[in-house]
Fold this sequence. Notes:
This protein is α/β, with parallel strands linked by helices.
Amino acid sequence: MPSVPEPREQPELARWLRPGDHVWCGQGAAEPLSLTTALVRQAPRIGRLNAFIGMLFSDTFADARQQGLALTGYGGIGNGRHLLKSGAMQVVACHYSQIAGLVARGELRCDVVMLQLSPRGPDGRHSLGIAHDYLPLLARHARVVIAEVNEQMPWTHGSAEALDALRIDASVQVSRPLLETGGPAPGDVERRIAAHAAAFVEDRCVLQPGVGTVPDAILESLGDRRDLGIHAGLVGDGVRKLMQSGAVSNAFKEFDAGRSTTGLAFGSQALYRFVERNPDIVMRDPDTTHAAASLARLSRLVTLNSAVEVDLGGQVNAELAGRAYVGAIGGQGDFVRAALNSPGGRSIIALPSLTKDGASRIVGALAGGVVTTPRSDADIVVTEWGAAQLRGQTMAERCRRLIAIAAPQHREALERGATAP
Length: 421
């Protein structure tokens, strides 16, 4: 068990940080806010710091550029998109599963890790709570590891063991509600998408659900299924509700049988209460949740991912809306490929047919030429107008099927511009 030093109420980071350091911070609802707030405020006194951030739900880094703090991240999820738009943050284009390896090989630098822990649990150990991400893997290479021990962070199964090999150099003690996430409730469009997607989810399937209004709508439609399994990089309240409905048993999962597997759990306070000491949920790091070796053990793996747009060949852009970075590569590539290789598996890309401005999200060419998932990995694309099964189809047939699920007012223009190389 790591030794956690006595708490320091107002951390003086200059004791631990050096000019030029690269600092990695807990992401999303697991952001250690007392530490990241101190990092932004004290950056001018320390000098030339770079912070790597993942999903961002707070406004902590809004003034980072003015404070001389350079920011790097793996995408524009949440408030990160505002930092990218302003030029305050730069993107490292990589799969989520590659991040720890980039640090281990020295291709990304990690000097300091700031993470959030739960209080001691039933085994007397702290846990990583709702975020067993890449940070424990990176901490092995860091010079300094600083922990924020939050009295309100839930203790979770699976994540306490990851701390055994770590040295915690400093800590602060806080009691703060975790940040909540969540979008609007699913509407008619999302429910129509869900009805088409649900047709491909049978009893005993293992689901990798994304998080958002469309994935939540799909999960809501699966309450009558039985013996589903969960293996995901991130779960939200949609998974909580599905588990509480009795549809999930994980009984036929070849990996972590009997338990839902995830690396992150971001959502409402109800979700955080649900995962607290819940033996039916196990937290794993990306070397497990996203690793090809782990995923290869799962049969009937059905992956549910979203997209900004899909072109007529089946290529997926999940990163850019126009010229604005609004997403990330994340784990889409890892999970899509795993579903294609899984016996009985399917990969579903689900999206509304229209943008908020009425433009088609089934397009002739992707914005900026950015391809998150290549056409060679295309399987099923779903909109509110239907499902296009693309695997094994010619390019001409793919065009026809994708145009058929585009918004009706855009189909004629798509047909005129369609090419099938």
